[in-house]
Amino acid sequence: VIEMGQAEQSVVTTCAYCGVGCGFKAETKGNQVVRMVPWKDGQANHGHSCVKGRFAWGYATHPDRITTPMIRKSIQDPWQPVSWDEALSYAASEFKRIQAQYGRGAVGGITSSRCTNEETYLVQKLVRAAFGNNNVDTCARVCHSPTGYGLKQTLGESAGTQTFDSVLQADVVMVIGANPTDGHPVFGSQLKRRLREGARLIVVDPRGIDLVKSPHIRADYHLKLLPGTNVAILDALAHVVVTEGLVDETFVAERCEADSFAAWRDFVALPENSPESLEATIGVPAEQVRGAARLFAEAGNAAIYYGLGVTEHSQGSTAVMGIANLAMATGNIGRLGVGVNPLRGQNNVQGSCDMGSFPHELPGYRHVSDAATRTLFEGEWGVQIDPEPGLRIPNMFEAALDGSFKGLYCEGEDIVQSDPNTQHVQAALSAMECLVVQDIFLNETAKFAHVFLPGSSFLEKDGTFTNAERRISMVRKVMPPLGGKADWEVTVALANALGYPMDYGHPSEIMDEIARLTPTFHGVSYDRIEQLGSIQWPCNEAQPDGTPIMHVDAFVRGKGRFMVTRYIPTDERVNQRFPLLLTTGRILSQYNVGAQTRRTPNVEWHGEDRIELHPHDAEERGIREGDWVGVASRAGETVLRATITERVQPGVVYTTFHFPESGANVITTDNSDWATNCPEYKVTAVQVVQVDQP
Ligand code: SF4
C-alpha cells in the first residue's frame, strides 16, 4: 500500500463521491494529502478519474471542519464545546430519558450512503440492539429505494446485474433518466468509447443531456418525454415489442414465469398502451417510440442504464419494474453487454442498502418479520429484535410533528438540504427533544441539533464502499481523524454509553461479523479483498471470487417475474398558477448538496445553481440570460439565476441542487413513490417570474 515517490507516501483508497467507486492513490506529505492520482489497477476505473475525484481532498482539512464535540440544551442556545465522554453520555442520557417518557419507538437513526459499509452496519445495529426498535433508515430512501424494491420483485435481488466493463460488449444502450457524463463521469467516458466504436444509443430524458449530441456521438433516438411519464413510455416500448413479435420467446420460456409473462403481455398489448394512444401523454411522436423499441429489441446485446430520473417519481418502483420487464422480454439479462444497471449517485448507496439500514430489512435484504433471520442476528448480538418494521425517514418527520418521535441519531446526512419540502423537515426537527448530528461540517441539519459529534472524512478511516456494480473496495486511512475518532468508533462509543456493549479493534472485525451473518457476504473479508483487489458480491462458497454478472443461468428468485406496470399520472399537475414542470439533476463539478465540493475548488468549479428555461418560456416572461427569477411551487419559493437554453423543452424547467442558498428542495413537494416513499423530486409544478437581485 505504501510507496515512496515524490510524496512521502501514497495510500490506495476509493473515491468518496459517486457510485462508480474509482480507485485512487492519495499522496501525502506528513498528514497532508498533496495529490490524488487515479489508480491504474482500480477495477472500476482502470486508471481514469473525473475532476471531482482528482480534487477530492480539499474539503477534508477545510477551516469549516468541526473537530470538537458540542452540546446545547436548546437550539436557541450557543454551542458548548465538551469532551467526547461528556457529549456521548449527554446524548445517551437524553435518548434514554425520551424512551422512558415517550416509549421505545420514540427514537431512531439515519445513516448515509457516504459512510462506509462498516459504519452503516453499526448504526443499524445500534438502533436495533441499543434502542430496541427498527427505526433506522438511510439516505438511499430518497434516491434508489425503488431500485431495491423493483429489482427484488422482478429479478430477486436488489442490485444491478452487470459489471461496468460490460458496456463494452453492448450493441445498443438505452440511457433512461440518467446523465452519466455529469453524474458518473468515468462510466460516462467508457460508454462514450463504446458509442464511438459504433454502438447505437437511445436516450430517454426530458432534457437534452450531453450524450444526445456531443463530438462524434449522436443518439439514434432522443425520446424527449414529459417529466412524470416514464411508466407510460416503458409501456409503449413494451407494446411494440409484444405486438410486433419482438419478444425473445426462448429466453422467456426457459427463464421466466409463464403466468406473470402472459398477464404482462396481455396488459401491454392493450390498444391504450400503444405509442399512438400514449403520444399526447408522453409528448414523443409515436414513430420515434416504435423505432427505439425495434432498435432495442433487435440488438444482439442491449443494455439499460438508468438513474434518479427513473426512481424519484410517484411511480419510481413501477418504472424500475418496467425496465426489468423490457430486459427480460427481449432476453437481455445474464451475460456481458446487457442487463439492468442502476447508476447509483453516491459512493455507497448499494452498500448502505446491503447493510440493513432499512426499517424493514436486516443486512442482506432479509425482512425483520422472518423469525429465522432474527434468531441468527439475536444469537450474534445477544438481544431480542423487534419483528415489526420501523419508521421510514418521512414517517419519522410525521411522527415528530404528531409528538410521538422525539430523538434522532443522524450520521453523515444533511436531511434539511437533501430531503424534499425543506420547511416540513425543519418543522419536524424543531419538534424533537434530542437531535444528534455526526458530521464533518456544521451542516443545515446541525442548526436544529442538540449534540454535535465530529465525523471523519473518507481519508481518516479504514473501511469499505460498495459501488453500483456491487464491487466492495477498500477505503484506507490516509491521516488520523481530525476529531480524534473515526465514525465507526463514535457509534461504538455511543452504543456503549447507551448500555449496549460493542467492542471492535478494527473495521475488519465488523466486516467479519457482516460476513458471518449475511449469505451473500460469506466469502468477504479484508484479506480476500486485498488478494483480489475488490470483490463483487455475492461472494460465498458458491462464488468464492465474487460475481461480475448476475442471473446467468437462473434468476436469483428462480424464474424472472413480470410485473404489470399500469401508468398512473402523478398528482403534481400544471395549472394556471403553476404552469411549468420543474425537474432536477447534477452538474459535473459538484456533488449532491455540495458540502464537500463547495469546499474544494477545482478546475471546473461552478459557484451556483441555475434554472434552465426554454427560449419560448423565457420570452413569454421577459426573462433574459442571467436574470434573477423567482421560482414558486405549492411547497415554497426560491430565487435562482436563469439560463436560456433549448436543452429543455417548452413547458419544462430544470435546476441542480448543490447549493443551500438556492435550496431546490424548498420547492419540491411531499409526493413520493407508492412503494418506498422515495420523493418525487423530478416533477414539481412551478411558476417562474423575473425578480430583482436578492
Ligand atoms: Fe470516479 Fe465518480 Fe469519483 Fe469521479 S466522482 S472520480 S467518476 S468515483
UniProtKB/TrEMBL annotation:
Sorted UniProt keywords: 2Fe-2S, 4Fe-4S, Iron, Iron-sulfur, Metal-binding, Molybdenum, Oxidoreductase, Repeat
Keyword Mitochondrion in record: no
Recorded GO MF terms: 2 iron, 2 sulfur cluster binding; 4 iron, 4 sulfur cluster binding; formate dehydrogenase (NAD+) activity; metal ion binding; molybdopterin cofactor binding; NADH dehydrogenase activity
Cofactor(s) in the UniProt record: Mo-bis(molybdopterin guanine dinucleotide)
Domain 4Fe-4S Mo/W bis-MGD-type stretches: 8-64
Signal sequence, start to end: none
Gene Ontology cellular-component annotations: membrane; oxidoreductase complex
Superkingdom per UniProt: Bacteria
A biological process from GO: formate metabolic process
Family: Belongs to the complex I 75 kDa subunit family. In the C-terminal section; belongs to the prokaryotic molybdopterin-containing oxidoreductase family.
Record protein name field: Formate dehydrogenase, alpha subunit
Positions spanned in the full protein: 234 to 927 of 954
